[in-house]
Structure formats: structure tokens, C-alpha cells
Amino acid sequence: MVKKMIERPRAVKFGGNELTVLGRQLEVGNQAPEFTVEASDFSSVSLADSTGKVRLISVVPSLDTSVCDAQTRRFNQEAGNFGGGVVFLTISAEHPLNQKRWCNFAEVDRVQVLSDHMDMNFGNAYGTHIKERRLEQRSIFVVDKNDMIRYVEYVRETGQLPDIDKALEAAREAAGS
User: Fold this and answer.
1) What does the DSSP assignment read for 98-162?
2) SS3 of 164, please?
3) pLDDT tens track of the chain, all 177 residues?
4) Catalytic residue selected from 11, 22, 68, 120
5) Rounded CA gap, 74 and 72, in Å?
6) CA 120 to CA 32: how far, in whole Å?
7) Is 103 assigned a catalytic role?
8) CA 107 to CA 161: how far, in whole Å?
């Protein structure tokens, strides 16, 4: 029996339109779902690949927009202030080659930029898959060393930045525990 995907109508605003997001909305204290996405070399990357580390997962609709660009560059800059116990991931539904081009242009090298373009596995598991656009809803997740979600923010308006400072503080706290 195939389980029906949860749909959350009007969960996100994109260009003034209220759109549907697929997948359940996660909360602090939930076990982080496993996922598989692609790196720029088309290799598979999963949550399990960073087991034992804190993960700050920044989710963006498109790196080529000013807000996503600012969000990703800020996390790239901040990643240098953390030790090896915190991994910074940015996930979008863009093709890995487009992500690689953008990273080279933006000189983003401390954040691992990953693609959910194949089957929206991450977006469906984390409740960020915008159904009508096949993009990700802007969001942030901090997952601790034991795969528990310690911080989550879903941004309702795609053109607005998340609270980056709160996410960074949550990552610091999770790394200290």
C-alpha cells in the first residue's frame, strides 16, 4: 500500500501566491528523517554521512536569487567560526551543475551545497517541497549529533530571510552538548 503524501495547502507564499507544501512540518524534538541528495559530482549524500556531528541545514528555493545568495554566503562566512564538529549544508532543488557554477562564482567553499532535484527526497521528508513549483521552501534545521532536531524554522514568505542568528546559536548550543 502506497502512503499518501501529506499536503499543506497555503503553507508558503511565493510571488504573492499561496502554494502547497508537501511533507509534514517537523518540530524541535523530532528525530531527523534520513534523506539522500546529490553533491556537485553527482555522488549521493545522506544525513548518515555526517553522523556524530551537528548539522546546520539551510534550505533555499534558488541560489540565483538575492535572498538565497545572501543566506548561503552568510552561512559560508559563519562556517569558518565553527570547528569540525558542525557541518553546514545548503539544499535546493537546482541541478548540481548549476549549483557548482554558482558556488564557483560566489566563492562558497565552507558550505556543502547539495541538490534535491532528482526526486525531492529531502523536501518530502522535511516538509519543504513546494508542490506547484518543484522548489524548496526556505527553511533551516539544526540536527544534533544524535539526529534530533534542535532548531527548525520554515519561512512562510519565500522572499524573506530566516533568523540566521538564532540558527547559529542553536548550532553552537548543540555542538556544546
Assistant:
1) HHHHHHHHHT--SSEEEE-TTT-HHHHHHT-EETTTTEEPPEEEEE-TTSBEEEEEE-SBTTS--
2) helix
3) 667 899 999 999 999 999 999 999 999 999 999 999 999 999 999 999 999 999 999 999 999 999 999 999 999 999 999 989 999 999 999 999 999 999 999 999 999 999 999 999 999 999 999 999 999 999 999 999 999 999 999 999 999 999 999 999 999 999 995
4) 68
5) 5
6) 16
7) no
8) 20
Cα gap 56→157, rounded to integer Å: 21
Structure-derived torsion over alpha carbons of residues 38, 42, 44, 49, reported in degrees to the nearest 10: -80
pTM of the model: 0.96
What distance in Å separates the CA atoms of residue 92 and residue 101, rounded to the nearest whole number?
A: 14
Cell of 42: 553527482
Beta carbons of 120 and 33 less than 8 angstroms apart? no
